[in-house]
Amino acid sequence: MSTETADVATAARSIRNPVLAGFHPDPSILRVGDDYYLATSTFEWYPGVRVHHSRDLVHWRALGGIVTDRRLLDLRGCGDSNGVWAPDLTWHDGEFFLVYSDVASFASGYWDPQNFLVTAPDISGPWSDPVKLHGHGFDAALFHDDDGSTWLLSMSADWRPGRERFAGIEIQRYDRATRRLVGRPRLLFTGTSVGVTEGPHLYRRDGWYWLITAEGGTSWEHQVTVARSRELFGPYEVDPQGPLLTSVGRPDLRLQKAGHGSLVRTQHGDWYLAHLVGRPYTPLGNCVLGRETAIQRVEWPAGDWPRIPGGVPAEEVTAPGLPAHPWPAEPATDHFDTDHLAPWWSTLRRPAAPDWVDLRSRPSHLRVHGGQSPVGRQAPSLVARRVGATRCALETVVEFDPLDHRQLAGITAYYNTLNWHHLYLTRDDAGRRVLELLSSDSGRRTAYPELTVDADGADRVGLRAVFDGPVVRFGYDLGAGWQELPVALDATILSDEHAALVVDGEPAAWGFTGAFLGLWVQDLGGDGGHADFDLATYREF
């Protein structure tokens, strides 16, 4: 839609949540002029820090990611649900600022976080070389004060046994001219009795400093806490009426896990909160779609505390009085006609570089050079997209001539290194090209030899993966039409809840990413195998 058309379009009436369906957690919302941006976490996936763009808070389009290459972030060896946590996007003095945390660990009270800052004159870049900030804690964010100073906030991690690991929110000055932190950090806020205080964002309004934090952990006990102070360094008083937003105690709500919010003010002075939610398949059950982004309208009378009606997440919210600005619909089928991946694709643990993601050697095909096994964390070859609905499908057509059983190419329903389903072409011991199915549930693999299909006579093979509520189904087409494999696989193992594991009170694994549908090529012997994908069609139903 052109700008001229948008100016006369009917004002958008309502925001339908979630505005970003599927794996889009920890939203940082920003307005620059008439443009709104949402930056979300990406963990072990490239491009890091996914960004969406809107003109009316109703319609959003994917712009791709900001952290696109190893110059900005190296995810080789990154563990499941490590990597990029809770980015923060701000604008000041004609420049975009992006802060992001690279979290390396979360065992025995350690996180090993490293915070980085990059800047750019435009949301599309070019982005500067990263400034290495501190590693005191994750969820770092910038605050640009009215006096021109800039400050870095983050949660303060305490590794010492017997201490509160989420020790509060700390603040330290950032010198924009020298591009470094100066002075000593100060503890700003220790949180409420709910605990797990993180995700800070600071705002200036009506002579107050307003501190927004996430508390209660990122699951069912999640909430948005508001505190305020007349002075930057506090003391901060907490809203006496409790959290601004939470789903706690309301298992009847469709939107759960409400928390980790950031505020934005429209051109007309209206306030909205972007925040994290989850949509479990059953009450407080598994969230296969991962943690998503929703937006709530905030009533904020001058001098008073901000309020969201009922303090709970609503599925439909009154939109601001802005001209409606829908974007062109994403095409259902990607024919791979460009020399770069479309913004809806992500790659696992390594950027989509030409040495393994090749869109030029064979026009209108995606050539994927094989990588490591499912447990490999340095060079896997997986090109995937987020699952955005409880019922959706990905179809592709692949050409692949494997040497032996060490080369595999196909389609996957994927969560992490331990939880996935994979339908793939390979060669058996007799030299036949065959279709095989393999699943992994918490690292326990299940093969289905009775479902093996002889694909020796087909040069082009259609493959399909379908999410049908709590089950995953696979199909294939050898040239005579689609056939469905007669097995219903468990989709709920591809969820945050199933991936999380606590042993003796310590997190042995977290689940933060949601499910993916993808194109997966493995070359376990390092013999140089590749597969050509002619197209990929994603649809929701």
Into how many domains do the coordinates divide?
2
- Backbone structural class: mainly beta
Strand segment tally: 42
The gross shape turns out to be globular
Task: Return the CATH topology of the largest domain.
Answer: Tachylectin-2, Chain A
The percent range for helix content is: under 10%
Which residue ranges are poorly predicted, with pLDDT under 50 across at least 5 consecutive positions?
1-8
Report on the biggest sheet. Answer: 9 strands, antiparallel
Work out the helix count.
2
Q: Taking all residues together, what is the mean pLDDT?
A: 95
Kindly report the name of the CATH homologous superfamily of the largest domain. Glycosyl hydrolase domain, family 43
Give a topology summary:
Blueprint: H1 3-8, E1 14-16, E2 28-32, E3 35-40, E4 45-46, E5 48-54, E6 61-67, E7 83-92, E8 95-103, E9 113-120, E10 131-132, E11 141-144, E12 150-157, E13 166-175, E14 180-189, E15 198-205, E16 208-215, E17 223-229, E18 237-238, E19 245-246, E20 256-265, E21 271-278, E22 291-298, E23 316-318, E24 333-334, E25 346-348, E26 357-358, E27 366-369, E28 382-386, E29 391-400, E30 407-416, E31 419-427, E32 433-441, E33 444-447, E34 453-454, E35 461-468, E36 471-477, E37 482-484, E38 489-490, H2 496-499, E39 501-503, E40 506-509, E41 516-523, E42 530-540
Antiparallel strand pairs: 1-23, 2-3, 3-5, 4-25, 5-6, 7-8, 8-9, 9-10, 11-12, 12-13, 13-14, 15-16, 16-17, 17-18, 17-19, 20-21, 21-22, 24-42, 25-28, 26-27, 27-42, 28-41, 29-35, 29-42, 30-31, 30-41, 31-32, 32-33, 32-34, 35-36, 36-37, 36-38, 39-40
